[in-house]
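Friendly challenge for the regulars: who can give me the structure tokens for this chain first? No prize, just bragging rights.
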Amino acid sequence: MSSADDIASFESAVVHWSVGHVDWVGGVQVWPSDRDIAGGGLYPDSGDAVVYDARGRSGLMGVHHDNLSDIHPVKLKSAKKFGITLRQKNIPRRVPTEELIRRYNWISTLFIDWLHVDGASPFDHWPTPQAITAAFEDECQDFAHDPHLALYWLMHFGLCLDPRYAEVADAVRGHGHDQMVERVRLALAFFDHTEVSHDIDLIPRYNPLNKDYSRLFLRRRANLLYLNWSQSYRGDGQPLDLLWQSVVLYRAGDAWAIRRACWLRNNL
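First reply, four minutes later:
Bragging rights claimed.
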């Protein structure tokens, strides 16, 4: 496939997230009905997801559609009915698959077609910039045998224009993950072959004429860059060129413009 095809596929994938972000975390979606759940507590007929952890072989987990951080083990009355084998040996993972699902919640918010959601931030998941750095430095040693863990950091750093993206991109290419995992290849195509001003259409089909959706992704990404570059690197060699990109990325109608201007004034 060409880079243009991969970019289009990437945009389609991020706009149409599945509950549990299955394709991004190395899981397999299972499609039971409410009656197939042993013990209840999960309602697939209402939109809850059942995910098999193919990445770590830890078993089945339920993800509630109205709270994607509410993840817990689930049992089916007959896993064999859905082609799932639960007797395979577990694959130890530094970061469990359910944690990867929770991490993707902030990323998926960038692409949701809800007008009342103005922005998304990794600080919705991570308490501090230092926590992000500590986790990355601990986890990067597993990239060779954990492509889905590397994919998370590829997405995180790519969306945030973090220079550590290049380190992760080199790692996934060096280990051949771009050839084995489709989502890795699509992410590389998007981040390597689009400009920072590249927009993703989030206009819903049910409301195609609403101009409030115009450049919704760019507005959110501008806010994301501001939050990262104004908080993450204070006193650590400010990359003001990247912060400035967040100012000019979406100049009109940007609710954070005044805060950005004040920050620049007070920190130059």
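The chain has eleven helices and six strands. The first strand starts at residue 28 and ends at 30. Your move, everyone else.
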